[in-house]
Write a structure and sequence with these properties.
homodimer; 9 helices; 5-stranded parallel beta sheet; 7-stranded parallel beta sheet; 17% strand; alpha/beta; 12 strands; Rossmann fold; 313 residues; 28% helix
Amino acid sequence: MAIIIVCTGLVPERYDRALRALAPERDIRLWPDHGAKEDAHYALAWNPPAGELAEYENLRVIFSAGAGVEHLLGDPALPDLPIVRLVDANLTIRMGEYVVLHVLLHHRRMLEYTELQRAKTWRLLSQPAAEEVRVGILGLGELGADSARKLSQLGFQVAGWSRSKKEIAGIESFAGEAELDAFLARTDILVALLPLTPATTGVLDRALLAKLARDGALPGPVLINAGRGGLQVEADILSALDDGALWAASLDVFESEPLPAASPLWAHPRVVVTPHNASISEGPAVAAYMLEQIAAFEAGDPLTNLVDQKRSY
Amino acid sequence: MAIIIVCTGLVPERYDRALRALAPERDIRLWPDHGAKEDAHYALAWNPPAGELAEYENLRVIFSAGAGVEHLLGDPALPDLPIVRLVDANLTIRMGEYVVLHVLLHHRRMLEYTELQRAKTWRLLSQPAAEEVRVGILGLGELGADSARKLSQLGFQVAGWSRSKKEIAGIESFAGEAELDAFLARTDILVALLPLTPATTGVLDRALLAKLARDGALPGPVLINAGRGGLQVEADILSALDDGALWAASLDVFESEPLPAASPLWAHPRVVVTPHNASISEGPAVAAYMLEQIAAFEAGDPLTNLVDQKRSY
């Protein structure tokens, strides 16, 4: 009943350390040192090599090391097993930090103030109050709902868009394709938190950005993408920034990661680039969550936060 | 029963416009066009020239255009009249925006990420969760209590220090000189929101900064001063930054404003300079507040938010 950790693109040692510390009795293995593959009953995976998970013939449950699972579903040989998404209070808090920080950073015009500081220039810029600014959360799941609440507590007008209608106090809810345009038309700062699915790939394109509010209290619309890089069309974002359709952007995720040095996003004066750091789970939190689910599973209780493979999240 | 607006160092025309719009029947005058001085019954003042207010012999109430009143109390000829402090929901919301933005900015290590972006370098920095970081609000009045609550909702460990003990859910309260050192010793990010009084002048000095927590989850202690410039000793802040006693600072206020171009604070890589923009009241909010109080006063009802001249705030 070994646990195999198969992660690429992040630091899997922290999960290895945390699992060993919390469950010293368990057999924990860190890919590529997998030992006898038939021993593994549980996998903790992030962006595993295609076909790798299929080779563990006694695998029973796959745990995603993040909230998203597109890194698993892209594997055509993915075994037909229950997949558990990571739901971590810490992950939610970290995402809330990122979203609130970047909304405030653009709301308070910090890119311009940073330039003014560099020029040693003392100048007040006009500044709407939070209540005059409309934030729209595209993707009103666990993370989106939490960020929406926090922004609402800061005084912003907050709405969310999701596949199905949500009931969250103080947050206007838009749902489905039919209400997307109305949602965008009332949004000054758009925060993308959608999962990456075939339906959401490339959704942040020229056509969508052109539908954001043009009459807001800020100099122009702002995009914050803390979801997945595959949601965005970077060429469209750059052209929208350059012709004023977009005023500014904070991007934590990119079409290709790490963001290539040749990307014009790095040096764009109206773009904040962060290295996919919006919400990274700590080893102990992931390990505790996984061990709790394994204990339930071995006691015959149901797993929670299972992925609906038809909806891809 | 004219209203005289006597403001220097900000843009008083917005108060003039807003008062005229809201009370077209009133006689509103904008210093230095004061007309017959005996007509003025009410003054809206910000940093008035010393002795000026004493010349309006029929003055009955002085309204401060900001939350602080040190700009009035420094006038040795200040008439012995009721002074009303500005308490404005909008002011509180704006201060909350500033404090939350700058706490998150340092918590999420944005000064370093901005440097990394400039160098086109994709690198993750270690990142404590909000719950591992202790914010201390020095000055737990109306503005401080609101910021404390908002930071607590984001997951930070928040404490406040004030002259007298406060009861705020989820916020640890320290009070008086005797508890100041204990408050500082548990603080990773210090937010100064004290009023400027003889007792608080220069309080943010080398000795105080040296008492901040050295064992925090961030690389070092952070100072955010959104109170008054007179609270801080800039030479001490610079030397603390340079020898590592302080890791970083956001300063909205300065010993001398505008901050002189010669100040090393402008170009310091660990200092964010903003031009005293943390919380600026809009004209309509100030005008509405003042007219409401005048209406109450003329109806024989008591004024609210009166300044205690003995305590200087």
